[in-house]
Amino acid sequence: xxxxxxxxxxxxxxxxxxxxxxxxxxxxxxxxxxxxxxxxxxxxxxxxxxxxxxxxxxxxxxxxxxxxxxxxxxxxxxxxx
Length: 81
Fold this sequence. Notes:
The chain has helices at residues 2-12, 28-56, 68-79, and strands at 17-20, 23-26. The chain is mainly α. The chain is rod-shaped and about 80 Å long. Keywords: DNA-binding.
């Protein structure tokens, strides 16, 4: 965990935690930033899940059959006349 906190701590220029014999404790600044860090972590997981879901979807080809009359109607509707 110390490595994960080191970069943000250096960017902020303030300590985010206090080291203890049995681990670490967030200080006031760390506590204030914690909800933002948790939200960012959730967003990253959601984006990863989204991309994973998109990769799982199969891409394919869709063929549509139209009668000559339907083609004429589509052409007329899209020609602007």
